[in-house]
Task: inverse folding
């Protein structure tokens, strides 16, 4: 059943193409359409100049070597460019890392100075006052 449907669709496609294609063309006649079709078929069946009598393509070793040399050269250039970019990025990274490290050292020094300036005895006195306030508010409640 699938085979019949496939054959039917193929036949429909061929019939549609045959009927619609000439109508879509600007100035086609059955003679020119047939001639163009024949010419197209003939050009597709001809062998290219690079093919020999057996139909296999000839490989020009010199062209292949030249292409390989060209690709190898391009690969080397790309690799050198990539290495240069990598080196530049690495240097930039280390410079930024050093900058952040110095900023961190500055911050740590300031934080240490701030902590040394804190009078913990005053904080303890303030906490005792807060405890007394809590005790008094608990008695009043």
Result:
């Amino acid at each position: 059943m699938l085979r019949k449907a496939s054959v039917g669709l193929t036949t429909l496609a061929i019939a549609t193409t045959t009927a619609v294609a000439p109508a879509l063309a600007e100035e086609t006649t059955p003679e020119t359409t047939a001639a163009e079709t024949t010419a197209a078929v003939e050009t597709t069946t001809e062998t290219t100049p690079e093919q020999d009598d057996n139909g296999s393509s000839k490989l020009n070793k010199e062209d292949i070597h030249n292409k390989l040399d060209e690709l190898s050269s391009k690969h080397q250039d790309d690799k050198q460019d990539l290495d240069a970019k990598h080196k530049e990025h690495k240097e930039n990274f280390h410079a930024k890392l050093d900058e952040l490290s110095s900023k961190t050292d500055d911050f740590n020094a300031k934080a240490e100075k701030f902590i040394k300036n804190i009078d913990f005895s005053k904080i303890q006195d303030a906490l005792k006052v807060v405890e007394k306030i809590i005790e008094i508010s608990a008695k009043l409640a």
Observations:
- Residues 1-44 form one domain.
- The CA atoms of residues 124 and 130 lie 10 Å apart.
- Residues 40-56 have pLDDT under 50 and may be disordered.
- Helices lie at 2-24, 30-45, 61-117, 120-140.
